[in-house]
């Protein structure tokens, strides 16, 4: 009973820290938004996995939809600690004065990850090219993620930081966007889990305070 109480106490502590940080620091500066989505994984064999994601995003203090996107691709494990990734994404986005536009995005990259004493570390490099509204943009996305995943816990806390860098532009090394993301992952069963997080996004155009909710499903 004490062990179960400790797990729930950890969950409440992590969520409380996120809420305190959000209310005391994030809200006064920047726009509030939500990201909600569903991710589906299908493991073909020990090396190849299909991943599909649908996500909807709000903006302007939850008053308007900002984007809907559908992403699908494959992960290929070439080594025990190394995976290659390739995705295609279809977007429907609000482009301000230009109205809603359909966009296409291509992504390719790798992730190196490993676990040591319940701590899981991951380093991901992802190149993406986006075409929308007659414009195109190439970026390199670099992400570091650390998660604490002890056996039999109810939830698993994690934290990640991700930096975006323009490719093929004079603004290289300018870091136009950085995301800091604390959250918790809550497995319901071997095939389903809920990812709840807060993301603080610093951007040259605007700063966002994002509350996120993702449902993960394994087929």
Helical element count? 1
- Structural class from helices and strands? mainly beta
Instruction: Note the gap between the termini.
Output: 33 Å
Overall pLDDT: 85
Task: Let me know the number of strands.
Answer: 11
Q: β content, as a range? A: over 45%
Note the quaternary state here. Answer: single chain
Q: Major beta sheet, specifics? A: 11 strands, mixed, barrel
Radius of gyration (CA) equals: 18 Å
Would you list the SSEs in sequence order as H and E?
Answer: HEEEEEEEEEEE
Strand sequence of the main sheet, in spatial order? 1-2-3-4-5-6-7-8-9-10-11
Query: What is the overall shape?
Result: globular
The helix fraction, in percent, is 10-25%
Contiguous runs where pLDDT drops below 50 for at least 5 residues: 19-28
Folded structure, characterized:
This protein is mainly beta. Helices cover about 10% and strands about 65% of the residues. It has an eleven-stranded mixed barrel. Mean pLDDT is about 85; it is low at about 20-30.
Question: Which terms would index this structure?
Answer:
eleven-stranded mixed beta barrel; 11% helix; 219 residues; mainly beta
Could you provide a short overview of the structure?
The protein is mainly beta and 219 residues long. The chain has one helix spanning 2-26; strands at residues 31-43, 48-59, 64-79, 82-94, 100-116, 119-132, 135-148, 156-166, 177-187, 192-203, 208-218. The two termini are 33 Å apart.
């Amino acid at each position: 009973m004490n062990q179960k109480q400790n797990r729930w106490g950890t969950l409440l502590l992590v969520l409380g820290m996120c809420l305190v940080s959000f209310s005391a620091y994030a809200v006064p500066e920047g726009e509030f938004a939500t990201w909600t989505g569903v991710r589906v994984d299908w493991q073909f064999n020990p090396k190849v996995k299909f991943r599909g994601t649908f996500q909807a995003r709000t903006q302007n203090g939850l008053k308007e939809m900002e984007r809907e996107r559908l992403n699908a691709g494959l992960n290929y494990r070439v080594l025990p600690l190394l995976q290659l990734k390739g995705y295609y994404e279809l977007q429907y986005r609000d482009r301000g004065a230009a109205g809603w536009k359909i966009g296409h995005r291509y992504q390719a990259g790798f992730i190196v990850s490993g676990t040591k004493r319940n701590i899981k570390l991951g380093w991901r490099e992802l190149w993406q090219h986006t075409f929308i509204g007659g414009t195109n943009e190439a970026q390199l996305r670099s992400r570091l993620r650390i998660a604490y995943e002890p056996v039999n816990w109810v939830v698993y806390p994690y934290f990640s930081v991700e930096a975006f860098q323009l490719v093929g532009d004079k603004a290289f090394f300018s870091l136009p966007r950085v995301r800091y993301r604390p959250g918790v992952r809550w497995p319901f069963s071997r095939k389903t889990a809920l990812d709840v997080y807060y993301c603080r996004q610093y951007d040259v155009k605007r700063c966002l305070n994002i509350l996120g909710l993702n449902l993960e499903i394994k087929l």
